[in-house]
Amino acid sequence: MTSILLLRHGQIRANVEGRWHGSTDSPLTWRGRRQANRTGRHLAASVSKPTHIYSSPLERCRHTAQQIANQLDINPEIEDNLREYCIGEWEGMRFSDLAENHNFVKRAIEDPDYAPPGGESLAVVAQRMKAAIASIHERHDHEPDARLLVVGHGAAMAVLLGELLHSTPARWTDYQFANCSLTELVLSPAPYVNFFNSTQHL
Fold it and tell me: Which of 20, 39, 40, 72 has the least CB density, counted as fewest CB within 10 Å?
């Protein structure tokens, strides 16, 4: 087994309002629940349906994972290191305010070790996401029929792809995930993305 299916959680209110939610917990909207349900139906009908589901501990991912798991008749497992990029005191701010008042994204790209007040740096997020994916992969490395689904967050997964595909988390802005989009990450012989941000099932 050399690939993992990445799924961003369903819509939350902060997505609609253009706010950074990070480690802040919040439920799915009605549309988010519908997205998760449609994703579950799609995966249940697939010839290569997931056999294991891993989720961030945050509510929006747990609920997305559970709706899918109900249709696959499997139990999702929580992986703490899949949680979203935390920006500390700036969480809940609009993306426009983060750009205009704090120049957040530019500062993070220029210095991956830069962390906002009370938050994480890109480098820290990259290392824990890499550790999470490596741990999940290793648990099933000797199961030839294992098919893994990871339910996570847009920013954290973008940081992961930047690190794995370009050897720098500073490339995270190259990857923008829609809610409940599917991405296949192939891990060996060298990491690459087989398909990215697929939303046809929605």
Answer: 72
Quote the pLDDT of residue 141: 87
Q: What is the pLDDT of residue 1?
A: 58
Instruction: Enumerate the β-bridge partners of residue 19.
Output: 94
| Close Cβ partners of 191 (under 8 Å, ≥ 6 residues apart) | 164, 165, 185
Q: Cα separations (Å) of 151 from 64, 125, 179, 196?
A: 8, 16, 11, 15
Question: Per this entry, what is the length of the chain?
Answer: 202
* Amino acid code (one letter) for 187: L
Using DSSP's 3-state secondary structure scheme, residue 146 falls into coil
Q: Which residues of the chain have pLDDT under 50?
A: none
Domain residue spans of the chain: 3-198
| List of E strands, the chain | 3-8, 52-55, 77-78, 148-152, 182-186, 192-198
pLDDT at 201: 97
Q: What pLDDT does 151 receive?
A: 98
Residue 43: per-residue pLDDT: 98
The pLDDT value given to residue 90: 97
Query: Residue 7: helix, strand or coil by DSSP?
Result: strand
Closest CA to 92 of 152, 153, 18: 18
Task: Specify the CATH architecture of the domain 3-198.
Answer: 3-Layer(aba) Sandwich (3.40)
